[in-house]
Design brief:
The structure holds three protein chains of three kinds. By secondary structure, chain B is mainly α. Chain B has eleven helices and two strands, in the order ααααββααααααα. Chain C starts with a helix and ends in a 5-residue tail after the last helix. Chain C is an alpha/beta fold. The chains are: A mainly alpha, B mainly alpha, C alpha/beta. Chains A and C meet through helix 1, helix 2, helix 5, helix 10 and helix 12 of A and helix 1, helix 2, helix 4 and helix 5 of C.
Chain lengths: ~325, ~280, ~400
């Protein structure tokens, strides 16, 4: 059974189950859509963190740009959503290629700091170019997509739209992770020097991982903008990058579905707790410390342990392919 | 004339930035530990000074007390919590300290409320110095003087004492230090406490200038990261030079191109990492 | 066999994590009550405003008791100060049947919520600052109580120019975003009309906390008046640092858009003394409704109502009065009743202008008094003057769809 938990098909099945279960257990279609959208962005973040060993504080850049690009293409260029989405993916991939290409020149903490600096840079750019972005007010009046003549105005109608895209993109991300490309990323993560010595173009692989992650994150940003009807400045803030990382790490970096789990947990816990206690972030803070100390494999690690206990098979040993969250990239 | 004033003002800001960032830098140099909770220690220093002065304690007593309390608290946190994750990947350093910072922020809101408050400059320093067109608050001049003295003392501590030698050697090879029989764990705790204490002192010193509020930690952290990265992680001289550079740049930009102040600072940070990865003064 | 079992376990686990919400949410399900949604920043940087506004809404709900034969409940929805969360919260509340909304302290949130609520068949009443709310982004379901930037400047800058004819040189410090631009544009127009020399302006970023550089610029320009156009904690920071630079003795300092009591409490009387503040509301306003309201709040809640509390109270009350008059709690019906309504409000006679849904009310110029002159701990300021100044709906750019 613990073996089963490693199988990609099972992860995809779990993603499908999530899509089907959310409408049954949640009252709010908006929250359900938000879970899938952030789950997607967290899975894209995981492609960098878990599979390539890159801790990027720049995911908010792509998410925010995706929101803005969606808004501009829908409002100014008057494109339908179906034509807008591929363009947004291109914008995300292009920006991520540039940010990635510059950032991977440095390793470890310096890489983290570089992505942090880029994240601040893009925030101030968005803030100052208020003609395009609406500045602090945000880019307003972003319409919902339409299918034929029907506008997907209701929360659950739009959820269905998001759900289809979510499953398609999740499957694509899985394909990437399972391909030769994905396995090479794992090899780079585990031992960059060796991968380089074998003859892999390590840098090109890392940049490609960035581009794919950026494209998916930007798509998530576009879906989010259509969900709430605005591309807010807060989507490109440093805070969004941080939230996406936290979701990813809470879920665990072992596989892509774990990230969806992390996003769901984060959003649902936040939703429940904030209704009860405005200071709920205190609990979140404590949880993060606890995860760093005791459950570094995140929620997925808990599921594995539970599964192992149930089948009375030994706990998964420590050195499986997608195991350690991030390997040290060498001391700077 | 305006430029001269802006440069002086920038030095004032820069010395505070140095005090805030040097602890972060030294902690990183010795422990290879990325501390996202550094800003929280700065905020605690400010709030402790605010609380003590509000209860009638003299500012001059509150200042060292805030520094000591924050240092002790940080050392305790290190000994109980953080040292357990040194061996982990950076991801978990960041996760734990981000969580810690979040928790501190919420605790501050619970204890002192979300609004923030005012800490008046101490008696005798609440006026301004006027020399012709030159106007500057006495308290800010005092901060420049005090931080200069502290910078000197710290230099002596790191370069002229046994502790400093140990710290420097430790940041190059912790294994050797252990072999030589030094208790690296106690040294780590001491250095962590010292670094956080300095951040607390910076917070207490900044409180009469900018007041206190529960979100000052976030802003302080981003400044500290910029300074540490530009100066070079682990470098004392780098923190000093970069602190001053950032302070002066920020102040001059207020005259030249205010909207772009932040843009320029972060562009500078990115440029430095790409072109000079060890920062201005970082050890290779 | 193993496969199936594994699948079931996992499904159970997933369902277990996700299954809690409806159970807990069940507590919300209202039993025929008339709910007024109060979407407010209960956590985040503006939590202080949110907390008081939530109390104000609850106060109004309790006072109203029963409307349309249904018990009135004010329910606060935490926006976390983020437009995205704000949009989600009102979408959820709309889906659960709530149609009346009073809240939205930040401009970015209020703009989004106005759209969402209107699209969902509700009505949204706000105190947020952005001119667009009753200007270029106005719509059928959105109403605003607070005076726009034009009126705020007219009621602070104009009376001061008349009061101090010798003060010819003004310097401005402006936050660089739409709201700040609005205030600055209005101020420049008044300067030009009155022959005032605008000796300089400093823009600062949204998150700026360190104003010494801008103050140094201001000092170099040798103005007679320093006009601070930032809002919230930033205006407090600017003022605090301006006072530490000794500017209070060298020039008149005006803070055009102050938050009122909550801001004065954070600043303290020593800083406030001698400073001019523009404000939407002050508990010392001499109007019949305000006097009764302040007395009641002091008796029941043991504090003086601040702007967040009073504003939120009035919005909630207006929505409930509207619903009672319309005989319906549906958005379009209530909106129709509110349009053109005049009533005795907190600031005296108030009117909801039909064309752009802007409330026509007073804006106040206040002056900080010495600590020794304060009658009680909340008596920070005197009212210098007050009045109504509004652009026409066309000039404000409102085209109601």
């Amino acid at each position: 059974m613990t073996r089963l938990l490693e199988r990609p098909l099972v992860h995809f099945a779990l993603a499908v189950v999530t899509v089907l279960v959310l409408p049954l257990v949640l009252r709010s279609g908006t929250l359900a859509s938000e879970i899938l959208i952030f789950g997607l962005a967290a899975a894209a973040c995981n492609l960098l963190l878990g599979y390539t060993g890159l801790l990027s504080f720049g995911q908010g850049i792509f998410f925010g740009l995706g929101s803005y690009a969606a808004g501009l293409l829908l409002l100014r260029a008057d494109l339908p959503a179906a034509a807008m989405l591929p363009l947004v993916a291109l914008v995300g991939a292009g920006t991520a290629t540039a940010v990635g290409w510059l950032s991977i020149r440095r390793q470890g903490v310096y890489f983290v700091m570089l992505t942090l600096a880029f994240s601040q840079l893009f925030y101030f750019l968005a803030y100052t170019s208020s003609d395009l972005t609406g500045g602090d007010n945000g880019l307003l009046n972003i319409p919902r997509p339409r299918i034929g003549e029907r506008v997907l105005g209701g929360p659950w109608a739009y959820y269905a739209y998001v759900a289809v895209l979510f499953l398609v993109l999740f499957a694509l991300l899985q394909r990437v992770a399972l391909s030769t490309f994905g396995r090479t990323l794992l090899a780079i993560r585990d031992n960059e020097a060796r991968a380089s010595a074998i003859g892999f173009p390590v840098r090109a692989f890392k940049v490609a991982a960035f581009a794919i992650s950026g494209a998916v994150t930007a798509l998530a940003g576009a879906l989010h903008a259509m969900l709430i009807g605005v591309a807010p400045l807060s989507n490109i803030e440093y805070h969004t990058s941080e939230t996406l990382l936290i979701m990813t790490i809470i879920g665990g970096t072992a596989n892509l579905f774990a990230s969806v789990l992390g996003a769901a947990f984060y959003l649902i816990a936040g939703d429940l707790l904030s209704a009860i206690w405005p200071r709920w972030l205190l609990l979140l803070g404590a949880l993060l410390v606890a995860i760093a100390l005791f459950m570094q494999r995140g929620l997925w690690g808990l599921i594995e342990r539970a599964a192992a206990a149930m089948t009375r098979s030994p706990a998964p040993e420590a050195a499986r392919p997608a195991d350690a969250a991030v390997t040290e990239e060498g001391r700077p | 004339m305006t430029y001269l004033l802006q440069i002086l003002n920038g030095i004032g800001l820069g010395m505070l930035y140095f005090l805030l960032a040097v602890g972060l830098s030294v902690i990183f140099g010795l422990l290879q530990f990325v501390n996202f909770a550094h800003g929280a220690f700065y905020m605690l220093g400010a709030y402790l000074a605010y609380e003590m002065v509000g209860r009638g304690v003299s500012f001059w007593l509150a200042l060292p007390l805030a520094c000591l309390c924050v240092g002790a608290l940080a050392a305790l946190t290190e000994a109980i919590l953080l040292r357990r994750i040194y061996a982990q990947a950076h991801t978990f350093h960041i996760l734990a300290t981000v969580g810690l910072a979040l928790a501190v922020q919420e605790i501050v809101i619970i204890v002192w409320g979300p609004i923030g408050g005012n800490l008046p400059a101490p008696d005798g320093l609440s006026g301004v110095v006027i020399l012709g067109d030159f106007i500057y608050p006495e308290y800010r001049l005092f901060v420049i003087g005090l931080t200069a003295v502290l910078a000197g003392a710290l230099w002596w501590l790191l370069e002229g004492t046994r502790l400093g030698a140990i710290v420097r050697a430790g940041s190059e090879s912790p294994e050797d230090m252990a072999l030589l029989g030094y208790d690296t764990r106690r040294i780590n705790t001491a250095v962590f406490g010292l670094g956080a204490g300095l951040a607390g002192l910076a917070g207490a010193l900044a409180a009469p200038i900018r007041g206190v509020d529960p979100f000052m930690s976030v802003e302080a952290l981003s400044v500290a990261f910029v300074v540490v990265v530009i100066g070079g992680m682990g470098s004392y001289a780098g923190a000093l030079a970069a602190g001053l550079a950032v302070g002066i740049a920020q102040s001059l930009m207020a005259t030249l191109w205010p909207e772009g102040a932040r843009l320029v600072i972060y562009l500078g940070m990115a440029g430095i990492i790409v072109m000079m990865p060890r920062g201005l003064f970082g050890r290779a | 066999m193993l496969n199936r079992r594994a699948f079931l376990t996992q499904t159970a686990l997933v369902a277990g994590t996700l299954g809690a919400p409806p159970l807990l949410r069940g507590a919300w399900a209202a039993d025929g009550a008339l709910t007024v949604g109060a979407p407010l920043p209960m956590s985040g940087a503006f939590a202080a405003n949110g907390k008081f506004a939530a109390l104000g809404a609850a106060f109004a709900a309790e006072e109203a008791g029963t409307v349309l034969g249904r018990k009135v409940v004010a329910r606060d929805l935490d926006t976390e100060g983020k437009p995205a969360t704000a949009a989600r919260r009102v979408q959820e509340a709309l889906a659960e049947g709530t149609r009346l909304f009073a809240g939205g302290i930040l401009s970015s949130e209020a703009l989004v919520m106005g759209k969402e609520v209107t699209n969902g068949g509700g009505v949204f009443f706000t105190t947020a600052g952005a001119d667009e709310i009753t200007g270029t982004e106005c719509n059928r379901g959105t109403f605003r109580w607070s005076v726009p930037t034009h009126g705020a400047i007219a009621q602070t800058v104009r009376p001061l120019i008349e009061q101090m004819p010798q003060a010819k040189r003004w310097y401005t410090i402006t936050p660089q975003y739409v709201f700040g631009e609005g205030l600055l544009g209005a101020a420049k127009a008044v300067f030009q009309e009155k022959g005032i020399e605008h000796v300089g302006n400093s823009y600062h970023a949204l998150a700026e906390k360190e104003f010494s550089g801008y103050l140094t610029n201001a000092i170099a320009a040798k103005p007679d008046v320093l006009l601070i156009l930032s809002f919230g904690s930033q205006s407090s920071d600017t003022l605090r640092q301006a006072v530490s630079f000794g500017l209070k003795k060298r020039m008149t300092i005006v803070l055009a858009w102050a938050s009122g009591l909550e801001q004065f409490e954070a600043l303290g009387p020593d800083l406030c003394e001698g400073i001019y503040f523009g404000a939407q509301y002050w508990h010392g306003i001499d109007s019949p409704m305000n006097k009764a309201f302040v007395a009641k709040v002091r008796e029941k809640a043991k504090f003086s109502p601040n702007y967040s509390f009073a504003g939120s109270y009035l919005l909630t009350k207006l929505l409930l009065d509207g619903a009672a008059k319309a005989g319906s709690a549906e958005g379009p019906a209530v909106a129709k009743v509110l349009e053109g309504m005049t009533y005795a409000g907190l600031t005296g006679e108030e009117e909801i202008r039909a064309a752009d849904h802007q409330v026509i009310k007073n804006y106040y110029l206040l002056k900080g008094k010495a600590k020794s002159a304060m009658a009680d701990k909340d008596d920070f300021v005197d009212i210098v003057s007050s009045g109504k100044s509004f652009l026409s709906p066309e000039a404000a750019g409102c085209k109601m769809a």
